[in-house]
Each structure stands twice: as structure tokens, then as C-alpha cells.
Design a protein that fits this description.
The chain is of the alpha/beta class. It has 17 helices and 21 strands. It folds into 3 domains: 229 residues, Phosphoenolpyruvate-binding domains (TIM Barrel); 77 residues, PK beta-barrel domain-like (M1 Pyruvate Kinase, Domain 3, Beta Barrel); 117 residues, 3-Layer(aba) Sandwich (Pyruvate Kinase, Chain: A, domain 1). The strands form 4 sheets. Strands 1-2-3-12-13-14-15-16 form an 8-stranded parallel β-barrel, surrounded by 6 helices. The protein is elongated, with a radius of gyration of 24 Å.
Length: 471
């Protein structure tokens, strides 16, 4: 099954999309990677979804990526005595560690790490910013605040502390348990929530090792300040626009999206644009024109993947949402302006043999109009370099490693095929031609640009470019 587009689709599984039949329908509609959201569901739920995806993979013969999205530390208020209070601008309101139910004058905030980071003047956002407070006086176990924007406030609403680095790990006790479960299943990608510093990625890497790739979710403004260092340590990045939009000015989010996507393209790291892309399709069979434009913008920017959350996890039209997103991507990528934008924003290759070979392969493919670029890769680095170039022709990635094939499903333009390793250049050429024919990328008489590393099977050693004609 060959996708006739380059930008990938990540679909979140949930109550609306967890049966084997529904998962198969999502894949047929265009989903390339499935997201298991560990903020919801049980370990048994995720294991069943994982098994259904792997069974689908066997039936279709296509590698399918699975992303485990960890919840991270969620800061929430405690409960209120009456379940709901209405706060008025200008009134005083206390937050403290006392677990007694709250009222119109105070509320429990069972997070000592928050109080440790507060100073007078700090702004607090409650319920996704619907209620806003400013700290007037604070200590290690309380904060006296003034209501700046009032409104209704009920049990367990979220708390955001913008512009403050909180002394918390991105991995809670729940995350440690969920991560162990996900790694035991054999997950391909781990999404790390609440990333603030490069050290957060290092902490996760010690636990994950090489058993999965790490995707850093950029949802805190503090992470943007360390963008290059976080990129260097991560395998991929997600632009989590929903949470960014709570803690930052709304008008800054589109600018940050472009900045992050461009930085990821320069670094050769896959980037996923997420949150509310087709949000109206949770309840409607078609998106708004603004939502279609939002998806198109991510594609024009050159993002590797776009993600559906509630649309496929809990929406009424999960299959239609994937199909619509796939059609939007296909239409944008057929626009000549899309190609001009990608070419104008292409990063210069680094001064390495691997980058030089990959850049040359893209140029060869353009000059002689090859049917595809074929990469032989063990670790995936050769294919990712080809993806970074954003070539005009498809990228056919051949690897003997099923884990590599699954992880590459997140990257732009890569069509994966698992094959046995090759041991000679003649065998490499023959296999590239055979698989390109079989997978529908080429026909007899077409040419291919083939890249590999010699000795074969050596990770990261791209040093060979070969042009081959299919006889």
C-alpha cells in the first residue's frame, strides 16, 4: 500500500476508534502512525490497541508506527465544597496545601512544587486560562492572589504557571509505570510531556535507552528558550499548540509553529504539528474552511506529520477526519507553490560525507528525473537525511530492521519496506530495482538514485551513491 503523499498522519486511538475493524479503517483512510494517549485508558486498553495494530501490520505487510504519549505532571486544583464557585475580578483568593474542599475564598492546590517557584507578581492560569490570578503574597505552602479575570471554577481544573520553570520532572510515578508498560509492549515512539529543559530529555533517555525513539512535546514556553539543545537530544518534536496557546499569547503560536518546524528541518528531526487541526469534526462530518487552511499551512511549512487527537479518539467521524486530512495534504503537495516553498527553505548540507551523498542524490533525482530515491539503512539515519532534503521524488527506504521501519513512518516522504540486508553493490542494485517495481514506485526503463553505506550494515555510514536503470 503506497501513500500518494509525503506528509504523514498521526491518529489518536480512543473510545471511538479502538476496535480492530476501526483501526484498520483508519489505516486504510490514511493514518500512518497511531497514538496511544496514556492520559486516558487502562494498561489493558493500550495493550489491546497495540495488539490490533501489530495484527493489522501483519495482514497488510506495511510497517505501522505506534506512539505512546505519556501524561506528564498535570497540575490541578483540588475539590470545592459545593463543586463550583464563581470568582469575581478584584477579589482575593487563596491557594494552599490544605486538602479541605475549597470555597469562594480559597482552594486546595496539592502541588508544593508550584509554591516553591512562585514570587509576588507571578500569573496563574486556571481552567485553560479562563480564570486568571496574580500572586500578591506567597510562601512555601500558600499563595494569596488577586483575581484578574473571573469566572466559574469547578473541581480538579488545571493550573498553568507561564514564564516559570517549575522544579518538577516530566516523568511522574504514573509515567514511570506507563513507560515500563509501553516499552514492554514494544512501542516505537515515546512522547514526553511537559518538557522544560534539555535535562528532561536526558532523564527520559536513561530509562528508554535504544528501545524506542523519544519525541519531545513543546508545550511550555520555557522549552522554546532551549529549542536547539532539546532538538539535539530528541529524535523528534511535537508542536503542542493547545498548551502553548494557554501559556503564551495566541498570536505568538503561529509564529512559534513556523520557527519550530524550520528548526527541525535544519536539524533533520521529524516534527509533528498537533492540536485542534480538524476540531469541528469531533461533531461534524466536514471541517471548517479555516481548519482546512490550518492543515494546509503545516504542509506548506514542510512539517513531517500532522496529528488528530479528539477527532479520531472520541469524535463522531474518525474515519472521515483522517480521509479529509489526507485529501488536504494531497492537494497542497500537488500545488507548485508547495514545491517552491520547500526548495526555498532547504537547509545547506553539513560538511560530512553522508550529507554530501544525500544532497547529491536529491540533485541527481531532480536532474535526470529518477522514479525514486532508494536508501539502504540500518539505523534510519540514511533515510532521515534523504527526508531532510525534501526531494521531488518519493523516498523508498529499505531496512532489515523492523523497529527502524516502524520509527521512520513518522518522517516526511519515506515509504518503508523491510528487506534482508545486502552484502554487495550488485545485490544492492538488484534489490532496489526489484522492490521499486513491486511497491509501485517505478516501471521498467525508469532510473533510481540509490544511497547506502559501505561496509553494508554499518549504521550512519552513508558514503555511496549509485544510479541504476530498471531493465
Amino acid at each position: 500500500m503506497r501513500r500518494l503523499r509525503n506528509t504523514k498522519i498521526v491518529a489518536t486511538l480512543g473510545p471511538a476508534s479502538s476496535t480492530p475493524g476501526r483501526i484498520a479503517d483508519l489505516f486504510e483512510a490514511g493514518a500512518d502512525v497511531f497514538r496511544l494517549n496514556f492520559s486516558h485508558g487502562t494498561a489493558e486498553d493500550h495493550a489491546a490497541r497495540f495488539a490490533a495494530i501489530r495484527n493489522l501490520e501483519k495482514r497488510t505487510g506495511r510497517p505501522i508506527g505506534i506512539l505512546a504519549d505519556l501524561q506528564g505532571p498535570k497540575l490541578r486544583l483540588g475539590r470545592f465544597r459545593e463543586g463550583l464557585v464563581h470568582l469575581t475580578a478584584g477579589q482575593a483568593f487563596r491557594l494552599d496545601l490544605d486538602r479541605e474542599p475549597g470555597d469562594i475564598r480559597r482552594a486546595p492546590l496539592p502541588h508544593p512544587e508550584v509554591f516553591a517557584a512562585l514570587t509576588p507578581g507571578t500569573e496563574l492560569l486556571l481552567d485553560d486560562g479562563r480564570v486568571r490570578l496574580t500572586v500578591a503574597r506567597c510562601g512555601i505552602d500558600f499563595a494569596e492572589t488577586e483575581i484578574i479575570v473571573g469566572g466559574d471554577l469547578s473541581d480538579r481544573k488545571g493550573v498553568n504557571v507561564p514564564n516559570v520553570v517549575l522544579p518538577v520532572s516530566p516523568l511522574t510515578a504514573k509515567d514511570h509505570k506507563d513507560l515500563a508498560h509501553a516499552l514492554t509492549l514494544g512501542i516505537d515512539w515515546v512522547a514526553l510531556s511537559f518538557v522544560q529543559r534539555p535535562e528532561d530529555i536526558t532523564e527520559a533517555r536513561k530509562l528508554v535507552g535504544n528501545r524506542a525513539s523519544i519525541l519531545a512535546k513543546l508545550e511550555k514556553p520555557q522549552a522554546i528558550e532551549h529549542l536547539d539543545a532539546i532538538l539535539e537530544l530528541s529524535d523528534a518534536v511535537m508542536v503542542a499548540r493547545g498548551d502553548l496557546g494557554v501559556e503564551m499569547l495566541t498570536e505568538d503560536v503561529p509564529i512559534l509553529q513556523k520557527r519550530i518546524v524550520r528548526a527541525c528541518r535544519r536539524a533533520g528531526k521529524p516534527v509533528v504539528v498537533a492540536t485542534q487541526m480538524l476540531d469541528s469534526m469531533v461533531h461534524a462530518p466536514s471541517p471548517t474552511r479555516a481548519e482546512a487552511s490550518d492543515v494546509a499551512t503545516a504542509v506548506y511549512d514542510g512539517g513531517d506529520a500532522v496529528m488528530l487527537s479528539a477527532e479520531t479518539a472520541a469524535g463522531q467521524y474518525p474515519i472521515e477526519a483522517v480521509a479529509v486530512m489526507s485529501r488536504i495534504i494531497h492537494r497542497v503537495e500537488a500545488d507548485p507553490l508547495h514545491r517552491r516553498i520547500l526548495n526555498a527553505d532547504r537547509a545547506d548540507p553539513e560538511a560530512t560525507a553522508a550529507d554530501a551523498i544525500t544532497a547529491a542524490a536529491r540533485q541527481v533525482a531532480h536532474t535526470i528525473s529518477t522514479a525514486a530515491i532508494v536508501t539502504f539503512t540500518s539505523s534510519g539515519s540514511t533515510a532521515l537525511r534523504a527526508s531532510r532534503e525534501r526531494p521531488e521524488v518519493p523516498i523508498l527506504s529499505l531496512t532489515p530492521n523492523p523497529a527502524t521501519a516502524r520509527r521512520l513512518t513518522l518522517a516526511w516522504g519515506i515509504h518503508n519496506a523491510q528487506t534482508e540486508d545486502v552484502h554487495s553493490i550488485d545485490e544492492m542494485v538488484q534489490k532496489a530495482c526489484r522492490v521499486a517495481l513491486r511497491e509501485g514506485f517505478a516501471k521498467r526503463g525508469d532510473s533510481l538514485a540509490i544511497t547506502a553505506g559501505v561496509p553494508f550494515g554499518t549504521p550512519g555510514a552513508t558514503n555511496l551513491l549509485r544510479i541504476a536503470w530498471i531493465e
